[in-house]
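Below is how a single chain appears once it has passed through the pipeline. First comes the sequence as given, then the structure the pipeline wrote out for it. We keep one example in the README because the format questions we get most often are answered faster by looking than by reading.
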Amino acid sequence: MSDSCENSCKADETNPEPHGIIIVDKPPGPTTYDCIRFLRHTCNIPKKWKMGHLGTLDPFASGIVVIALGQAVRYAEYALHSTKKYRARLWLGDETDTLDPTGEVIKSEPVPSDWNDRLQEVASRFTGEIEQVPPAYSAKHIDGKRSYELARDGKTPDLKPVNVEIYSIEFGESTEQWIDFTCHVSGGTYIRSLGRDIAYALGTVGHLLGLERIQSGPFSIDEAIPFSAFEYGGTHVLKHHVRPVIKILEHLPSLTVFPDSIEKIHHGKKLDACDFNGDFMLVKAEQGAYRIMDPDGRFISLGRLKESSQMINPFKPWIV
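Resulting structure:
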C-alpha cells in the first residue's frame, strides 16, 4: 500500500471521486438522502460513486450529517451506533402526530404552573438506561413496512419499546410554554420520543419545536460544512474537507503490523503474534473488530481474532 489513507481520501477537482468522510451541517428541510443528492450535484460526484450516510437526521432538524464516500462506505456500520449530542426546544401543552412542528396537533393538555420545579427530578429520571417507544412517524420496520408508511395510511403502528441510554440531559432557557434542553445519548435514541416523555413527566404533553445535532461520534458541529459552502465552492470545498476513514474507526482498539507482514493482508492470509509489534496477548475475541495499522500509523485493514487458533483474520482491507 503505497498511499496513506490520509492522502487517498482527497478528491481531484477534475475527477471528484474521493474516499473518506465529509461532515455536513444540514439546514432544516432536507432529508438525509437529500444531503447526499445535494453533494453529488454541487460537487459533480459521478452517480457510480458510492455514497452513504452514517445516521439519519429528521427533515425538520438541523446539524451534523456524516456522509461516507467511496471505499469509506464499507466501514459505515462501525459508526452508525456512535453516540450523539443534541440541542432541542420542547413545546409544552400540545402533542403532534409526528412529535415535531410538521405534524397535526392530536392532543392538548394544560401545563402545570409548577413544572419548572420538577426539572431536576425529570433530569435524574431520564439519565441512564431507559426504554422508549419510537415515534409513529419513524423508519422502524413493522411487518415489512416502515412505521411512517403505516401512520400516513391512518393506521396505528405497533411499536415496541427499545432500550437506549441517556448519558446526560441538561435543561436551559425556558418560558411558560417551552423549555430548551441538551442531551448526550446512545445511537438509535429518538429525541422526539424523549421530548414527548419529558412532557409527560412534567404533567402535560408536548412536541419538539426545534432540534439540532451538535455532535456525532468524534465530530462536532464546529467541523461541519454548511450547504452554502458547497453551493459556492463545490468540488474545491469537498477536496479540502474530506476526512480519512480512520476518523470513524478510532473507537476500535488497534494493532500495529510489521512491514513484512502487510503483504499477507493483501493476499487474505491470517496473522499471528509474530506479525505484530506489541503485546498480542492482550487481544481478546469479545472485543470484536480491531484496526490493523502499519508502523507509520496508516490504516491497513480491520481484523478479528479467531479464538480457537489465536489468529487474526483480516477483513475489509483499505483498497484505493
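Helices lie at 5-8, 32-42, 119-125, 147-152, 191-201, 227-233, 235-241, 262-266.

See the next section for the split statistics.
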